[in-house]
Amino acid sequence: MHASQAMNTVTVISSISDWVKLRKQFDAKKTIGFVPTMGNLHQGHQSLCEKARQENDLTIISIFVNPTQFNNRDDFTNYPKSFDKDIALANKVGINYILAPNYTDLYADNYAYKITETDLSCLMEGQHRPGHFAGVLTVVMKLFMLVRPTKAYFGEKDWQQMQLIKNMTKAFHCDLDIVSCPTIRDKNGLALSSRNSRLSEEQYQVAINFPKLLASNKTPAEIKQLLEQAGMAVDYIEEFAERRFGAVKIGQIRLIDNVEMKQCLLQF
Length: 268
Ligand code: PAF
Fold this sequence. Notes:
This protein is α/β, with parallel strands linked by helices. It has helices at 16-24, 43-55, 73-77, 83-93, 103-106, 124-128, 132-147, 159-171, 201-207, 209-214, 220-229, and strands at residues 4-7, 10-13, 32-37, 58-63, 97-99, 151-155, 177-181, 233-240, 243-250, 253-260. α7 (132-147) crosses α8.
């Protein structure tokens, strides 16, 4: 792909220097909605993009599978990629620009500089994926610096990530709003995630027990036991900030989800 390539309406830019030049030409009066992604876009991303488009003059997404947030090499290598489909979805939704940088450009410092948080990032996902949130916060800050959005959109499926990013923008006095958007689920209640595309039909049938049990009226210990009986390995089931959070593994595929405690009423 060339550094800057126009495809239908969306323009894909992979060179950071090209992006910086272009960004300088934007009309300062225009609002910018930004959706950072790692690609393999699905309806969850689509809903974020649609909201960003409704609320702003220009909509930009980034596609970058960020190696610094993967604590597991295989998970990074096997992360699903579907660039052509992503471009088609971006066109359908009416995205103006896709920023798709490469590692050497985006991490010219080779990750010598990082953003760390010392509280919320140590719980749940942070506890089970050492270094994960430093990678997320660092890449998101780099992208915010490049895009300089008015509003950035994140899904509640990754509630801990969204909350840490919200807190980071306050801590660093960033002049932008973080918009939190509801989790999009499939017909069986499974939260949409790029990793779902790696589930076999058999694994999918196991996975659909996860959202049901998470939203049940059982205790975390009971849920853990029932998830294990259903064929999942459980990293954690925890209650925090009026929500219940969980992470499970089905084979090599790790899924996370969370629900508000007030919705945890399902009888099992
Ligand atoms: O949620 C994601 O897809 C990623 O963590 C993000 C925010 C794009 C950073 O790489």
